[in-house]
Amino acid sequence: xxxxxRLAPSPTGLFHIGTARTALFNWLYAxxxxxxxxxxxxxxxxxxxxxxxxxxILEGLKWLGLxxxxxxxxxxxxxxxxxxxxxxxxESGAAYRCFTTEDEIYELREExxxxxxxxxxDNRHRNLxxxxxxxxxxQGRTSVIRFKIDEKIQISWADQIRGEIKWQGKDLGGDxxxxxxxxxxxxxxxxxxxAVVVDDNYMNITHVVRGEDHISNTxxxxxxxxxxxxxxxxxxxxxxxxxxxxxxLSKRDCVTSIDEFRNMGYLPEALANYMAFLGWSPKSAESExxxxxxxxxxxxxxxxxxxxxxxxxxxxxxxxxQYIKNMESIKLVKIIWRYWDDMGWEPPxxxxxxxxxxxxxxxxxxxxxxxxQSKPFFLLPPIQKEGQDFLNNKDSKESLKLILNYLIExxxxxxxxxxxxxxxxxxxxxHNFKKGILMKSLRVAFFGCLSGPDLMQSWExxxxxKSDISRIQRCLVID
Length: 479
Ligand code: GLU
Known about the structure:
single chain; mainly alpha; Rossmann fold; Glutamyl-tRNA Synthetase, domain 3; Glutamyl-tRNA Synthetase, domain 2; 3-stranded parallel sheet; elongated; binds glutamic acid
């Protein structure tokens, strides 16, 4: 039998990292077992669902490299089918009309609160006679459809992550509401637990992998599966992503949507790699830097932890920096070039741009770091205090003069990093000048401070962009 997994996001917000990680686990397991990965957009909350969020989720999945196998299904287009099944449950006696008003429910809750009890419906309309139903309808009362939950029943399933999970019928909050309020004998809009079961069955889903916040829903859904005589899928519940304080990662933790990670300069491969290890501990993995294909080969649901997974910026940053370091230079330049375009900076040549990208990538954590780090190669940086202090030293200016004279006298046409080294060595020998001073002075001339990337390689770039001489000269006119 074909193995089929799915992601069933509600498009009520931007693509969240929690949903993305659920997608990733589903995708990885689908690859591992040669199954299919499908998408169902659960857009039945008409007030909160937006097509722009659906677009954002699908784009985010594509960006992360999580391709789906069939055209996504929209839950809102299947409402009449959901209603058909609700009708079937009504007719079989597994469900019934409940006319409890909002006020009555409020009163019931208040009473329960006073007694310190959790909210639970008292199933007061489970056994209404036809006459009582007619009477409520003629009073103009609206009704929801409730699914009967046997208080004494015990529900259990073999969760592929958590082992056997048991749930008592009495702990499910009373008979389950399947549809929103409607007038007369109408059936209102179907709700999540019913729609999910009908759609997972329709899509022939064999494995449901979702967040642990759905565990109690699974217990309810199993009862609906049984009442409709549907085949049960395997269920697995993944751990939540936690912030540094051990609480569920939320908007308050600053960044939670995939778009934001993208805009901050994380690479999709790095983010996907990081997310895979967020709650998954493989028995054997030679490295933590693995492509999705490599991960899918060793991935198993049973290696997902039960405990929540702490989100770590440090680890994500480290993984991202590894991907930047190992990226093909042409690909990196293409990305960085877009930032340069945005800043209005024009590299003198493509080779120069590639050399600069290679020079900077070892010290980059985020793609966006390329902006700050390449800035001194495009714009003349101001001389900072430490640079100025260094230039105040007589030897510094002297060493810059020597370098300048050398460049002018020798008319060095092509200066590469080897030639740059030679120049420093020669001047140092000829004038008995410490190499350190020569190099530090040059660094101040180029970068305005005493830190920065490899000096000889930088000189090659400044020489090619014809700005080395002018940078040295400007230091010589400063008092
Ligand atoms: N729409 C639900 C959610 O986003 C789906 C849960 C499920 O996978 O069944 O939480």
